[in-house]
Design a protein that fits this description.
mainly alpha, globular, 236 residues, 16 helices
Length: 236
């Protein structure tokens, strides 16, 4: 049976100080920045995924131990294991995984951690269930809760369901954080890739009120004349 200690030792073998220093800057860990206080040992995502597959049978208790670690790669690898287990888990196991994720979501505390896991766990679990919890997260004061809410909806978009994404995007229109602008614009763009008319209807109603970054991300895949049109609405 795999253990959290064995995984941290495996990750340590790949540690690279130069890469760790670069990650500190890339993930904005300085004072007052969104990743303040996070620490890195310099293990790449592909290396983490290899280790996650090797230790795929780590019990949920061990995953919780990884998620509480101050080291970013420990938490990331724990999430990769969680995603893998969710993908082949039973209904009972998936519910336990979802509950663990929600319980420890304060440790899913950087954009890469959210973006690699929210759709695959939270969104996937809620596909056939009520989604009230996402709306609560969207109204949270915590930026990572709000990002989880909108990114989780990617699972619905892939199934041709756009209502929750659009409603949550509406709740986040006045959000002041750039990370939410980017994530919301990204999900709107994903809606547009599936159904351009649905995206355009949302933009017709909301483009003027959208933060510039959110709008730019949302219209990125539209034809040039459409992009100019919505940018023009923004400047009216």
């Amino acid at each position: 049976m795999s253990t959290a200690v064995a995984i941290t030792r495996a990750l340590k073998k790949y540690a690279n100080q130069k890469r760790a220093q670069s990650s500190l800057r890339f993930f904005k860990t300085g004072k007052g920045q969104y990743g303040e206080g996070d620490t890195f040992i310099g293990v790449t995502v592909p290396q983490q995924r290899v280790i996650a597959r090797q230790f795929h049978d780590l019990p949920l208790k061990g995953i919780a131990q990884l998620l509480t670690s101050p080291i970013h790669e420990h938490r990331s690898t724990g999430l990769f294991i969680l995603i893998n287990q969710f993908s082949y888990g039973t209904a009972v196991e998936r519910r336990a995984i979802y509950r663990l994720y929600i319980q420890y979501r304060n440790r899913v505390n950087n954009w890469d951690l959210v973006d690699s896991s929210a759709s695959q766990v939270v969104g996937a679990f809620l596909l056939d269930k009520k989604r009230i919890s996402l709306y609560k997260l969207a109204k949270s004061k915590n930026v990572w809760d709000r990002r989880i809410a909108i990114v989780a909806s990617h699972a619905f978009i892939k199934k041709g369901e756009y209502t929750d994404t659009l409603h949550i995007a509406g709740l986040l229109l006045k959000d002041t954080h750039d990370l939410i602008h980017k994530a919301t614009g990204w999900m709107l763009r994903e809606v547009g890739k599936q159904d351009q008319k649905v995206l355009e209807k949302f933009l017709d109603l909301n483009a003027k009120a959208m933060p510039r970054t959110m709008l730019r991300y949302a219209i990125e895949r539209l034809p040039q004349h459409k992009r100019k049109h919505y940018v023009g609405l923004y400047h009216e």
